[in-house]
Amino acid sequence: MKYKVTLLLLVGLLTSCSINYEVTTNQVANLVVDGEIVIPFAAPMSLTLYQKGEMDEYYPAYNSLMQTLHKEADRYHNYPGINNLKTINDSYGSGEAIVINSDLYNLLEQALSLSELTDGYFNPTIGTLSDYWSPIINGEVSEINDNKVQSALTCVSSVAELRNVIKLDKATSSVTFNTIPGCEGKGVISLGGIAKGYALDVAASLFSDTNVLLDGGRSSMRTLGTNPNPKRDTWNIAILSPYNTNLGVLALKGDLAFSTSGDYEQAVVINGVRYHHIINPYTGYSENYYRSISLYSTGNATVLDALSTALFNVGGLGDLQSIISHVEKYYGIKIEVLLEQEVEDEKLNIYATNTFYGAMLDSEWSNSINHLYVLGE
Fold first, then answer.
1. pTM of this structure
2. How would residue 18 be classed by pLDDT, with cut points 50, 70 and 90?
3. The domain containing residue 263 runs over which residues?
C-alpha cells in the first residue's frame, strides 16, 4: 500500500506541474536619463520562468534589482542619490574617497581579484583605451592612430599597481581612484567585461526552489533548477559560430553559469585586419587568436564573464590553461571550455574539454568545423 500511495502522489505532482507549465519571458525595462533611452547593461537582459503566475510574482523585484545594478556600474550617466562608476571616474586623481553601495564595492573587489588571477589580461582600467577604439569599431572613424593608442595604453594600470590605483576601504565601503603612474591623460574604470555576469549572480539570489533561465543577451547566462519542458529536462544553449550559424547546442542540467566572448558582433575590418571590442591591455590592440570562447561552470557568471574576456587576449594554449587553472583553484570550481579558432575562410578548429564535448548534442555539430581537439590531451 505504501508504494501505491507514493505512486499516486507522484502522478498527482506530475499532473499538477504539467497543468501549471507555462513559459513566460520578460526583459529588464529600459531607463530614461535626461531624455536618452538607456538599455541596462547594453543588452537584452531577460528572465524566463516556467510556471503560471511566477512572472507576476518575481518580475517586479528582478526588474528593480537589475536596473539598480546597472545604475551603479554605469560609467556614462549620473543618477540621483547614487555614487556610481561615473562618480568614481569623475573623481580620478582627486584623492577623494567615494562611498559606494555594497554591490558596486563587491563588483570592484572581484574585478581586482580577477585581474590578478588572469595575469592582467582582464583589467578594469581599460576604459581610456576602450573609449579610443569604440568609434573605430562602430565604423564612425576609419583610421587608426598608433600614437593615440600608445597614449591611451599608458592609462591602463599595471597589475602590480592596480590595488593602489583603485583603493578600496572595506571599513568605510569606499573607493579612491588614484592617479595611474605614467598616464598621459585621464584614467577610466570600465566594468563592461564583468558587470553583466555579476548582475546575473545577484539576481539568482531572488529565486528559491524555482526553475529559472537568466539571460544576459546570449553572452552570459545563469540557469537554476531543471528545465521543466515536458519534452526535455536540459537547458539547451546555442553555441554560435562567426558565420551567422549555430556551431552546435550545449545541453546542460542544474545550477550553472555560461559565458561567451566573440569578435563577430562588434568588429570592423581595416586594410584586411579585423579589429574588435576586446582589447589586449598589454598591447592596446585586439587580438585574433580566436573567433569565440565559451565557458561554463557551476554558478559563477561573474568569474566566467571576466575570464572569457581575459582569455581572448591569451594566444598560447598552455598559458590559457594555466590561467583557467588558477581561477578554478581560487574559486573552487571546475570550468569547461570551448575555443573557436579560424584556420581558413569559414572553417574552424575547435578546442574543448572532454566534458564540454560530452554536453554537446551529437546531431547539432556544424559543418564549418575543420578539426576537433581535446584540451588537456
1. 0.92
2. low
3. 1-83+193-377
